[in-house]
Amino acid sequence: MKKSISTIIAIIALVTNVNTIQATAIKTEPIIETADSSQLQAVYDAYFTVKDALIKSDSKLTSAKAIDLLAAITAVKMDKLKNIEHTAWMKVVKKLTADAKSISATTDLKKQREIFKSLSKNTYELIKVSKSEQVVYKQYCPMADADWLSKEKAVKNPYYGSSMLTCGNVVETIK
Predict the structure, then answer these.
(1) What is the DSSP letter of 155?
(2) Span 86-137, pLDDT tens digits
(3) 22 pLDDT higher than 60
(4) Alpha helices in the chain (DSSP H)
(5) Which of 4, 40, 70, 175 has a CA-to-CA distance to 78 between 20 and 30 Å?
(6) What is the distance between the alpha carbons of residues 151 and 129, in angstroms, rounded to a whole number?
(7) How far is residue 129's CA from residue 110's CA, in Å, rounded to a whole number?
(8) Which positions ≥6 away from 18 have C-beta within 8 Å?
(9) Are residues 146 and 127 in contact, defined by beta-carbon separation less than 8 angstroms?
(10) In what order do the strands lie in the sheet with 169-174?
(11) Which three-class secondary structure state does DSSP give residue 43?
(12) pTM of this structure
């Protein structure tokens, strides 16, 4: 009888341990994917290369860099954005895409610069919400009546290139 009671106690202890192990295994933390704002940084970086090509007044390079911008835009995974970024992205993504396509489709520098005004406005709307990895300066040219974004505080005008390279001023610092 003592052996039977000991055996029953041992079996109960074993079953309890197995249940505890199973319960612990089931309680593992769910995998939560975090928001990834760095994918927007790729869009900003590509925007800056388009701007730099316009500063050089190189329409072919501008067209090529706009293709890179378009690739960065299409690579953004909206479900990985923070809520506030997602909302801003949804407001501007169609315009950004259309502007990048239009700039890439032409080698007419005057047209590229005109489209760049819209591209800059919509990129600004996005960068205000999500922030860039570095300080960004919003600059304004009164002659073109247009803004653009720059990583440098020094004004280098993408709307006039070398003919009026320093026309404009910093109107906002985005940190």
Answers:
(1) -
(2) 999 999 999 999 999 999 999 999 999 999 999 999 999 999 998 788 999 9
(3) no
(4) 2-26, 38-55, 59-75, 83-104, 109-130
(5) 175
(6) 17
(7) 30
(8) none
(9) no
(10) 146-150, 136-141, 169-174
(11) helix
(12) 0.79
